[in-house]
Amino acid sequence: MKIAENLFYTESHEWVRVEGNEAYVGVTDFAQHELGDIVFVEVDTVGETLGKGETFGTIEAVKTVSDIYLPVSGEILAFNDLIESNPETINKDPYGDGWIIKIKMSNQNELSALMSADAYQSHVGA
Questions:
Q1: Distance between CA 4 and CA 19 in Å, rounded?
Q2: CA dihedral defined by 5, 32, 97, 69, rounded to 10 degrees?
Q3: How far apart are CA 108 and CA 95, in angstroms?
Q4: Please, which pLDDT band fits residue 63 given cuts at 50, 70 and 90?
Q5: I want to staple 40 with a disulfide (CB 3.0 to 4.6 A). Which of 14, 60, 80, 119 is the partner?
Q6: How many whole angstroms separate alpha carbon 125 and alpha carbon 89?
Q7: Which of 35, 13, 15, 5 is nearest to 124 (CA)?
């Protein structure tokens, strides 16, 4: 299982990559492994501003459907077109091409409540 060093993590297995006041959000390698083969991702919140912890979409695998939660408050700017047509990209590259949404963060101070790579590694017992 891979855990990227330059990201922030949530207990519910989302990651955040910060670029200025914008950020990319996806699910971790641990999450995609637990879910299995991902077959569909739905995000109908583009253009909306949501609070930290709110559901921004769902991810469907062969075995289950799970909500995906926003790690920090912000406006949903974009949904990754690549995973809309090729959701299995999340299984292959969860921290790269498998990002799910891009957001404009409304409160960067919320990042301090997220886990570092080391803390996330301890969280999942890796």
A1: 15
A2: -80
A3: 20
A4: confident
A5: 60
A6: 25
A7: 13
Residue type, 81: D
- How does DSSP classify residue 62? S
Mean pLDDT score, 52-56: 97
Identify the structural domains of the chain with CATH numbers, from first to last. 16-108 (2.40.50.100)
Q: Six-digit token pair at 84? A: 């809309």
First to last CA, the chain: 8
Residue pLDDT, tens place only, 76-119:
999 999 998 999 999 999 999 999 999 999 999 999 999 999 99
Contact 62, 120 (CB under 8 A): no
In angstroms, the CA 126 to CA 124 distance is 6
Instruction: State residue 111 phi and psi, 5-degree precision.
Output: -60, -30
- Using the 8-state DSSP alphabet, how is residue 64 labeled? -
